[in-house]
Amino acid sequence: MTEMTDENETVWLGIDLGTQSVRVLAVTADGTVRGRGSAPLAGRRDGVRHEQEPGEWWEAVRTASRSALFTLTGVRVGGLAVCGTSGTVLLTDPAGRPTSPALMYDDGRAAGAAAELREAGLAVQDTWALPKALWLVGVHGGGRVTHQPDVVTARLVGRPVPTDSSHALKTGYDLQRDAWPDIALDLPEVVLPGTRLGEVCPAAAEATGIPAGTPVIAGMTDGCAAQIAAGALRHGSWNSVLGTTLVLKGAAPEPVRDPTGVVYNHRAPGGTWLPGGASSVGAGALPAGADPAAMDERAAAFEPSGALAYPLVSRGERFPFRAPDATALLLGTPVDEADHWAALIQGVGFAERLCLDYLHYLGAPLDGPLTFTGGAARSPYWNQLRADILGRPARIPEQPEPALGMAALAAHGVTGDPLPDLAERMVRIRTTLHPNPERTTLFADPYARLIDELTERGWLPAQVATQAYRRLNPLRGAGNCATSHDGAALDDGTKP
Fold it and tell me: Are 246 and 351 in contact (CB under 8 A)?
């Protein structure tokens, strides 16, 4: 059945190149989703190796775009933007054709190159794109360093295009100097997100169903796209994306300085800075094959759990502290699988609180609204649990998809309207959760015990632990004994 639409209606396309699928949304200026499409992606995982074939991205975009536009008639496509996984990189030839597989955002084979870069004074993490680009050149020879969305935008426009500064960040691009590092790599031209890259060419229009001449706008990483889709662009606002792993991104008038490189800063159109970090804890640590709704219901009987977890999905932690050798932590023995489930989801909440404590330690503004997005935001129980552990309200958007964020960015790139205004018009908040102070107090002691354990293992710096204790109970000061912390809600002040 064909959807009835206003002949003068404009839709904006957002394309999200995810890990498991490509998703496309056609969205109006008021946030109404008129069309959607998706297509699966395959990958190869083997230990620290995680690759995808770049050619599959284009085929998936073709399928998903046609599906999103299939039921729409009489509408105008105003523009499109593309986001991809942050840190995913490959090599291409001068015509933009891939000459290597794509090393995905969490591929860990370039740890040695990352260590050498850190010794040279560059604050990079093991899975960032810059060390992976060096690794690729060493294995596959020369080529242009290319980010995931660049492959798709080049096909859409019909020629190689500049990359955006958001995806370039983890390849070493200095957003304050607008310059690449002095390093022997063939690096692309860089433009700001929201810049017009060109128009959809006739060949791409025939392949995708997107009308020829549609403006193609430079995008941002999937984490930034999710932040736009959460409407978290006003200073002091934060978006917590909980999926396989946990990502926090906020908005600030100035970059949040972190000499360790744990927190990094994207730059949005209009000059706003988007500080944030990516943790290795998340829903990926939950047992496979379990029924999440049923386990949530059973886990409610264990508040707090008899066990204490720091549920890393893989070896090493990136945020709120850097500990390359950290492993998943489980203290105590759960009485059954429901207690184990409770320990894991509570542990993610504790890690999330520690991320906010670390941001507070760095002086990041935290006085704006907090939004929950990501796959785990589908769990009402886990959402409320996180709000209670954090001791602060949280908003749940109706359409928390990165593709929606890219639709808003496309509208910004074409119309010039401020991105925060466009995002707020497009984003619809489904519900706002309020913390239960009694439950916030209930979870304070296990949180303090986790801080103790992380500090004793040498993973969490002592000064960060001290700050976390202070925020846990400002009236008690900065003691370091778990039994001395009986709970208080997070202080949303901006000064450490």
Answer: yes
